[in-house]
Amino acid sequence: MAKKIKIKKDDTVLILAGTSKGSKGKVVKVMPDNYRAIVEGVNMVSKHTKPNAANPQGGIIKQESSIHISNLKLVDPKSGNPTRVGRMRDEKTGKIVRFAKSTKEVIK
User: Residue 77 half-sphere exposure, CB side, CA atoms within 13 Å?
Assistant: First the structure.
């Protein structure tokens, strides 16, 4: 069963906990099975790699690691402030849309 995650790819989010607390970033990937997301430039980890065709030198590379969805808060595109997210049915199309609870604006 798929979990209802209110954060999607390409959303701008605020980090609430961890070493990157207080920073904002764009969601690169959402993993609903693990309830985690990868945010651009946040939660960087060092990964040791063997030499391969893509990286013939090998060595240590920095890359983003996943962060739990509960540690992310969506940033309202209109106001730029963090907000909670609600879901409602759109009157025109009848589809379920996300909206910012602080400003009641529909999030595209």
Answer: 10
What distance lies between CA 95 and its chain's CA centroid?
23
Quick: pLDDT tens for 94-105: 899 999 998 888
CATH topology of domain 1-75: SH3 type barrels. (2.30.30)
Please report where in the chains the tokens 């893509």 appear, as a residue: 54
The size of the chain, in residues, is 108
The full set of domain ranges for the chain reads: 1-75, 78-108
pTM score over 0.85: no
Structure tokens at 39: 């945010």
Q: Mark out the alpha helices in 17-98 (DSSP H runs).
A: none
Measure the CA–CA gap between 24 and 5, rounded to whole angstroms. Answer: 19
Task: Identify the three-state secondary structure at position 59.
Answer: strand
